[in-house]
Amino acid sequence: xxxxxxxxxxxxxxxxxxxxxxxxxxxxxxxxxxxxxxxxxxxxxxxxxxxxxxxxxxxxxxxxxxxxxxxxxxxxxxxxxxxxxxxxxxxxxxxxxxxxxxxxxxxxxxxxxxxxxxxxxxxxxxxxxxxxxxxxxxxxxxxxxxxxxxxxxxxxxxxxxxxxxxxxxxxxxxxxxxxxxxxxxxxxxxxxxxxxxxxxxxxxxxxxxxxxxxxxxxxxxxxxxxxxxxxxxxxxxxxxxxxxxxxxxxxxxxxxxxxxxxxxxxxxxxxxxxxxxxxxxxxxxxxxxxxxxxxxxxxxxxxxxxxxxxxxxxxxxxxxxxxxxxxxxxxxxxxxxxxxxxxxxxxxxxxxxxxxxxxxxxxxxxxxxxxxxxxxxxxxxxxxxxxxxxxxxxxxxxxxxxxxxxxxxxxxxxxxxxxxxxxxxxxxxxxxxxxxxxxxxxxxxxxxxxxxxxxxxxxxxxxxxxxxxxxxxxxxxxxxxxxxxxxxxxxxxxxxxxxxxxxxxxxxxxxxxxxxxxxxxxxxxxxxxxxxxxxxxxxxxxxxxxxxxxxxxxxxxxxxxxxxxxxxxxxxxxxxxxxxxxxxxxxxxxxxxxxxxxxxxxxxxxxxxxxxxxxxxxxxxxxxxxxxxxxxxxxxxxxxxxxxxxxxxxxxxxxxxxxxxxxxxxxxxxxxxxxxxxxxxxxxxxxxxxxxxxxxxxxxxxxxxxxxxxxxxxxxxxxxxxxxxxxxxxxxxxxxxxxxxxxxxxxxxxxxxxxxxxxxxxxxxxxxxxxxxxxxxxxxxxxxxxxxxxxxxxxxxxxxxxxxxxxxxxxxxxxxxxxxxxxxxxxxxxxxxxxxxxxxxxxxxxxxxxxxxxxxxxxxxxxxxxxxxxxxxxxxxxxxxxxxxxxxxxxxxxxxxxxxxxxxxxxxxxxxxxxxxxxxxxx
Length: 923
Description:
- The chain is an alpha+beta fold.
- The relative contact order is 0.05.
- The active site is at residues 257, 266, 320.
């Protein structure tokens, strides 16, 4: 080689080195933000490369993952995969791909699960070349034959959800898992198919979030910033609370499919995937900046926590899922817990810590189902949860207690130490039950006032409960014998809901008309400290069928030998073959639980004839769900009911549930009951809990109805309402709601007691008088079933009302004085002239001013002892009367003057300067 050639080669090498040094890195080899997000998603699926395989729970999970793919019984997905060149399906049990879209989805799901085993650290199948080849071959086959961007043979059939949500979710995961094992052409093909069916996050509720997740993960795979941004922005409408249709409501309700309560079904899925998407985008260019994301964290407190009982999601908000054998109440609860766990990684510090405390409590208290072994729980989730459980600085939250009313979905939850009760209802606003896709075929009476009693018997509603329970006889319901109401039906009744008292106790009611029949009834539940009082009246039917009120339908132990007692300590026979037994003159009953803390007592305020049946019941999951197993399963049950006969007129019932009470305690309670039934007719149900001094009443009619206590008038309502009143030595407190959600005006309540003062009241409550009786109105227009509170003082200085027409009020300027029945004492003083004023001299330490609020309302200044203290705005888009617009309770006790002076100013939305003075109140 000559010198010139050597110099040329040297120069070429130098230029090559300089070019490599200064050129941008090749996209084929350099990691970018998209790759980082893809790796982040991969870690959530497999746990990543830093998996602690020596951890027993993680080791067990790896074995579970492997066994699903291949096992000694040759029943794994890989074992049963058709690998032949002439195949027409991948698995013989999901072979109808050309007619059943779920067979396409399930095929992708199995390939995805095989890919998880292929890419999980510690798996014996890690990077197995034969497995990898078979997975990719399966993906190519499905793409070529059933799921691609072509239009000729790919018009979606069967269930749209499989095409647009179920299948692309599985396919996206499979591509993330196999990203480096697929060719660029394969990735492009698969992702073109996803984009063909799910190009954007459309629809509402859970469906919208699912689609947003599909679009986002695909965007990460193909490195499409616009798609990722679109998926993020698609979440904003989900963050918003709704007032109708699908989504979350401010009262904690969640609705899907227009009118079905679904917190534990679609709601949980929504929470899972919104948490996953928030976590994926956290800290990236596409991080969620919408401030309404805080609502997601609020949902945990309001819409999920009340329904998760010791790790189990209450069945009454799971819809069709109760008919799926692989989706138990605990499995659904675990999904919600996993979603909340994911939120701990993105939520503000305070919320994150609160969630961790809840998680620790739920997992510790769920002694029935191991969270870690749940097939839906990933290695990554196990790792995060174990770090929470092992953190001694995180103390578990205490057992949640309280009464929770969900007016927007006709559900009630009552949580007390050691037990919880759910009540499932429907109305003209909410459907009775959902039964689509051949699921939930026996959900007939699950919203007919069914009561779900939760105790320490955490398997009560699991273990094949639903295919074996008598679905014609569900606890809490009043039904025509052996009827099958159609699904997806609203009632013609709107009185469904209730009222809470201090968030601790409550009254719930349901005006019931069984769909497709003549059966009608009024049903109430009064939920106190350690008892639940069930009252019914107006039970009427002309259907020529027997009507039954089902007190209980409790799953027994495996032998069905739970001790059962009636009226005394003598145990009844435990035979499963005696048939129906009739117990006349029943005062109390007691059924031993399957575990400690699972027993239930039953008290009957009046002598009652009760029928009982101890039986062994057999069914199959296919009875409920076309996709369910046809294998027979059995459980033993104790069923208790009241027989109202055929064609009853104004039938009734009353019984008291005593959860966690022994037979001795039940007998003692029956001898000295803590409750008194005050009213039980077609106009009102009312009960007094004597130890709490708490009266609860459901008023069924728009008439003036009075409930008596000890033979004297006590509580009166002029409209349909749910009311609770509690007296103590120093005060009396009331809570009122309109369960019909149809009253566009007010409810007037009168309590036959005298008070000295108004301690507090919600703005919707207007106090008319405190003596000689307490009388107030509640504006329930647009309240959507919400409860409103007022509290009166029984001791201390009395309050004095001074009407605008009183000679004690001195007016200057221009005022018009006239009559108006909407005002206190039916008089009003009105002015719109600047500097016109009204002055009152009074003796006391507190002053309140009441006016009308209106669309033409102006502003006025308040002077105390000739010193300016405030400007008050009386504008309101709608007329409001007797509104307390100003209060000062910090004055020295003595003589003072208060002056109302028109300011000549108004709210920008107001059409005038008017002030409608009603009255002053001082004490």
